[in-house]
Every structure is written in structure tokens, then in C-alpha cells.
Amino acid sequence: MGWPIWLFGLLAISLASAIALLRLQYRRATLGQPQLLPVTLLTNARFFGRVGLVMLMFTGIAGPIVVLAMVLQFGLEMSPDRAGLALAAHPLSIRVASILASRMGSRHLERRVTLGIVSLLTGMIGLHLTVVPGTSLAMIWIPLVMVGAGVGTATVAMYQLVLTEVPQADAGAGSGALQAFQQIGIALGIALVGQVFVGALGDAPDPISYVEALKVALWVPMILFTGLSIVSLKLQKREHGDDAA
């Protein structure tokens, strides 16, 4: 697509910079100096496992919402304000679910993560079925509410689970690393789902093509959340087994 060569150079530099950063953190730890990303976190497999779960979850969330905004306007031919009204169900339900989840404190964290991911999967399946020419706002709101409820429910519990793996002295660094990996997941999701969508859309898009391309792109989060649901259930069973022991 005419990308200049220096863009690929920057990609290579970013990898080299990441390696240099890690080496610096280990050297500072050896000297007993403060680290931006403490070695105690870098060697904490449970911490990075849970951070990876957060990253993958946001990989499956961000892309479909960005693509859906395009499909509503160009595929379903909604005006920008009407498309915005349709999408508003997503952040509003995140807000409500987050408030309710916060009131539960630290109770049933693993179960809430599983419930949230299953809700995300259900919502994505709902979008796959309901986004068709002529659909009503209400039919779009229903799956978007499911997606938003899943985000709010799972994220609050996930953050609590991740930070329980972090020593008190490293809480700031752990929270920062968690936010960074969340942003990486968002970027990956937009790139991945966006690429699948554009590839399915073709060179001569029409309203029907937009809808069909969305259905193809939604297979990415549906497959991802199916896998995450299985992983979350296994982690939940393992945690309960450890508690029983």
C-alpha cells in the first residue's frame, strides 16, 4: 500500500528497544536500583498469565466495535447520529455492569470473569445474527448490551485477580503494565478484525457487502471468546481445587 521503508525500520527498532528495556531492568535489579518494570513481575508467571488473558479479551472487544461503526453507516445506511445512538448501548452497559461488579468486592472473582467472557461470546453471536439490512435499533442494542455487560463484569474481576499477584511495593508498576497490555490488546484487535473485515469487503463494496464482511470479521472474536471461555472455566476449576486442598 505504499508504506515507506522507514515504517518497517521503526518496527525493527521497537523490538530492539523492548529487548534493551528488559536487559536494563535486570541490570538495575542486580545493582539494587529501582526498575520501571520490576524483575519480580517479569518472573511472575501467574501475573503475566492473567495479564495475557486481559490482553486477549480486549483484542476481541475493540475491533468489532470499530468495524460495526462503519457497517451501521455504510452497510445499514444509518446517519452518524443514529449509528452513535445504536453504539451507545455498549458503553452505557459497561458503566452499569462495572458499578454493579465493583459493589461485589472480591467475591467470586473467577466466576465473574467466566460469566463476563461468556456474555461477550453471546453478544458477538447476537451481532452476527442481528446486524442485517433493515434491522431495528432495539435488535442491535440487545447484543451490544450483552457485550458491554461482559466487558464491565469481566474487567473489574480480572483487574482484581491480576493485582492480587502483585506485591504491595510493585502495585503501581503492576497496574501500569496491566494498562499497557490492555492497550496492546486493543491495537491488535483493531488491526486483526479490521484486516479480516477489509479483506472480506473487497474492492467494490456495497451495503450488502458491508454486512457480509462484518459477519466474516465477527468470527475472530467469536472463536477467541470461545477459547477464553474454556480457559477461564479451567482456571476456575483449578482455583477451586487449590482452595479445597
Topology of this protein?
Elements: H1 5-30, H2 39-42, H3 45-75, H4 80-87, H5 89-102, H6 109-130, H7 137-164, H8 171-201, H9 207-217, H10 219-244
Overall description:
With 245 residues, the chain is mainly α. It has 2 domains: 36 residues; 196 residues, Growth Hormone, Chain: A (Up-down Bundle), CATH 1.20.1250. Helix content is 82%, strand content 0%. It has 10 helices and no strands. Helix 3 runs antiparallel to helix 4 and helix 5 packs parallel to helix 7. The longest helix has 31 residues. The chain starts with a helix and ends with a helix. The model has no long low-confidence stretch (mean pLDDT 89).
Concise summary:
The protein has 245 residues and is mainly α. The chain has helices at residues 5-30, 39-42, 45-75, 80-87, 89-102, 109-130, 137-164, 171-201, 207-217, 219-244.
Q: What fold name goes in the CATH topology slot of the largest domain?
A: Growth Hormone, Chain: A
* Most strands sheet: none
Question: What is the domain tally?
Answer: 2
**Termini Cα gap:** 57 Å
Q: Tell me, what's the shape?
A: globular
Name of the top-level CATH class of the largest domain: Mainly Alpha
Q: Please give the count of helices.
A: 10
- The run of helices and strands is HHHHHHHHHH
Computed CA radius of gyration, to the nearest angstrom: 20 Å
Architecture of the largest domain, CATH level 2? Up-down Bundle
Class from secondary-structure proportions:
mainly alpha
Helical content stands at over 70%
Multimeric state:
single chain
The CATH superfamily of the largest domain appears as: MFS general substrate transporter like domains
Would you report the number of β strands? 0
Mean pLDDT: 89
Regions with little confidence, pLDDT below 50 for 5+ residues: none
Strand residue content: under 5%
